[in-house]
From TrEMBL:
GO molecular function terms listed in the Swiss-Prot or TrEMBL record: 3,4-dihydroxy-2-butanone-4-phosphate synthase activity; AMP kinase activity; ATP binding; GTP binding; GTP cyclohydrolase II activity; zinc ion binding
Protein's name in the database: GTP cyclohydrolase-2
Lineage: Bacteria, Candidatus Blackburniibacteriota
Entry-linked PANTHER family: 3,4-DIHYDROXY-2-BUTANONE 4-PHOSPHATE SYNTHASE, GTP CYCLOHYDROLASE II-RELATED
Binding site for GTP: R273, I274, H275, S276, S277, Q294, E316, G317, R318, T338, T373, K378
Family: In the N-terminal section; belongs to the DHBP synthase family. Belongs to the adenylate kinase family.
Length: 421
């Protein structure tokens, strides 16, 4: 029987060790935390050679990585025979470490059940690190959520604790280097699991934890794909020739389309536009919105790029369907903006969801994408689904007389990145 492995990653101060601890308790798994190992002097005695390399200023990144990986491998080997698996946090960081971890999992017959990335803002991260108290003897650390003994003493050895100082500048550098490094590792590890998501690290500890559980459960239900390819043909358009592929749901017969340009198979950073249908804008050239122009612009850009995909989703009016969209239009004529109108008829401003996009990208064997959008909500939702969005490309169109207010609302209320409005 294979054992379970969950990987929790996050920048310094993301609270990954705390979450790993909770998850390990909840799933009854062991817990290996690189940060805790690193700060534990008794482990430094256990692995003197490795620790010397890790702490040496002269050691290269590669040597340090190798030493860290040796310790992790030995610690994994020492987990109890009866263990059902473990949660690891703070490792792997670099690509070589990710590769090493895969070798370790194969040797120990572990299956990666999930990769969880905790993303705090720079401010939150700094605030957490500033509040931290560290025990120099055993490596324990304490925070507001996990307070030490009164007077600032370690719970395990009553040692007087020290403040962990880190300057905002140092942290900022660390923060971005770390994000860049783990992005590479995550891309590699994703080949070994379908469950990879991130959660906001700005909420408090218990909310972050319940978000993690919620997403793990969600993922289990959605393990099987829903949309599969049904038909394919060449389509000549004003903007060039595309492969038109039609997908249908296994559950409710709904369908979506993909217009594919060039060879996208096994591609990274593939140019993608995800367009939700807008009958009025796409077909009738309505001037109420910018959908038609955006659609045509993206086809043009994909054609010029010689490679890319336009995914056309049949979800009308940000997911509220055409009946309600027409209702909302009438309310807008009476002076409400697009967000207010949706709310008046009982819908949130944004109902679109993108789980089908994951199925379509998987079918096309696309590994990561460069997304044409001005809409940050779209990026969050896709990342949530485990889609790697490497970059977003703005596709702004010149505002016209009738859609100025609409675009202004998109910018002001829905945080779209628009600068021409
Ligand atoms: Zn201690
Ligand atoms: Zn539209």
């Amino acid at each position: 029987m294979s054992k379970d492995l969950y990987i929790i990653l996050g920048v310094p101060g993301s609270g990954k060790t705390t979450q790993a601890f909770h998850l390990a308790q909840y799933l009854k798994l062991d817990n290996l935390s690189w940060g805790t190992i690193y700060r534990n002097p008794s482990l430094a005695e256990k692995y003197p050679k490795e620790f010397k390399t890790i702490k040496s200023k002269k050691a290269s990144d590669k040597d340090r990585s190798y030493a860290i990986s040796n310790i992790i491998e030995k610690e994994v080997e020492q987990l109890s025979e009866t263990s059902n698996g473990f949660i690891i946090d703070g490792y792997p960081r670099r690509l070589t470490e990710a590769k090493r971890l895969i070798r370790i999992t194969k040797k120990g017959n572990y299956n990666i059940r999930g990769i969880i990335i905790i993303n705090p803002s720079l401010e939150t991260s700094h605030k957490r690190l500033k509040e931290r108290l560290i025990c120099k003897r055993c490596g324990n650390y304490y925070s507001e959520e996990n307070p030490p003994l009164p007077g600032g003493f370690c719970k395990d050895d009553s040692q007087k604790l020290n403040k962990a100082y880190i300057s905002p500048e140092t942290l900022k550098d660390e923060f971005y280097i770390y994000r860049k490094e783990i992005a590479q590792s995550i891309r590699y590890l994703q080949k070994y699991t379908d469950v990879c998501f991130d959660v906001s690290g700005d909420d408090d500890e218990t909310i972050i934890f319940s978000n993690i559980l919620l997403k793990l459960r969600d993922r289990k239900q959605r393990d099987s794909k829903i949309f599969s390819r049904r038909s394919k043909a060449k389509l000549e358009t004003k903007f060039g020739v595309f492969d038109l592929i039609a997908y249908q749901s296994e559950i409710d017969y709904s369908y979506h389309l993909a217009l594919v340009k060039g060879d996208v198979k096994r591609g990274n950073g593939i140019l993608i536009r995800i367009h939700s249908s807008c009958v009025t804008g796409d077909i009738f050239a309505s001037e109420r919105c910018d959908c038609g122009d955006q659609l045509h612009n993206s086809l043009k850009l994909i054609h010029e790029n010689r490679k890319g995909v336009l995914i056309y989703l049949f979800q009308e009016g940000r997911g509220i369907n055409i009946i309600n969209k027409v209702k909302a239009y009438e309310l807008q004529r009476k002076g409400l903006d697009t967000v207010e109108a949706n709310e008046r008829i009982g819908f949130p401003a944004e109902m679109r969801e993108y789980s089908m996009v994951k199925d379509i990208l998987d079918d096309l064997h696309i590994k990561s994408i460069k997304l044409m959008t001005n809409n940050p909500d779209k990026i969050y939702k896709l990342t949530d689904l485990g889609i790697i969005v490497e970059e977003s490309v703005s596709i702004e169109v010149q505002p016209g007389k009738h859609n100025k207010k609409y675009l202004y609302t998109k910018r002001a209320k829905m945080k779209h990145k628009l600068c021409l409005v």
